[in-house]
Structure prediction request, 261 residues.
Amino acid sequence: MKDTYGAHVSVALDGRHVAIVEIDAPPHNFANVEMIRGLAEALEALDLENDCRAVVLAATGKSFCAGADLGGSAGLGAGGMPAIRELYENGIRLFATQKPIVAAIQGAAVGAGLGLAMIADFRVAAPEARFTANFVKLGFHPGFGLTETLPRAIGRQRAALLFLTGRRIKADQALEWGLADQVVPLQELRTAAGALAREIAENAPLAVVATRETIRGDLAGLVRARTAIEFEKQSMLRVTDDYAEGVLAVAERRPGNFAGR
Prediction:
């Protein structure tokens, strides 16, 4: 039996102390406030569920999460910066949850989608997975706490390379850099992510939570402080001509014709 949180998030327990949290807005699972709020509510509920000791975060469709939803009435484009602020406030809730998370990355994790992947303790990827922080191609500043979480995972220099080029990397390079922890064939992805989660769940749950808390430190607080800076920079850049050109260029799959204004 599945519990649902909003329109696009469901939770099912596998009977072996692992919860499967699934994002279901295919094909690309674009992030919006409703989705991130639903994920926060789901993970907070699992913190109170004694039968859950570890979580697999997975998504249906082609992409894990291909970035922020910039279109439509529910999108961040329509909601402007207040919607982005609300997205980040709910995103911080994800980092504050207690149970270990294994993300199953089957396809693109782009921008906010990469930020979402970084809430996990471990990332199991298929060869089809792609990772990119393409904000500068949009004329925008990185967000979702990525300027805190990405350097923690792969180091400042490699994070700077991804941020300043907007480069996309494949699963094998993500594995080499430590952005992914395991790469398995697509058809084995959820099985492998579940196996890792069950390996964690076999251990003493109080000890696991305490050890994770020590390792992560005040990650939620650090992300909160960093997203405040990111939000300020994004607010400044969102009103520029370069941002308007960047959004259009990415939608048209062409290089941006930026003017620096």
Summary: The beta strands are 3-4, 9-13, 18-23, 54-59, 101-105, 108-110, 122-125, 130-132, 168-170, 182-183. The mean pLDDT is 95. The chain has one domain: 3-205.
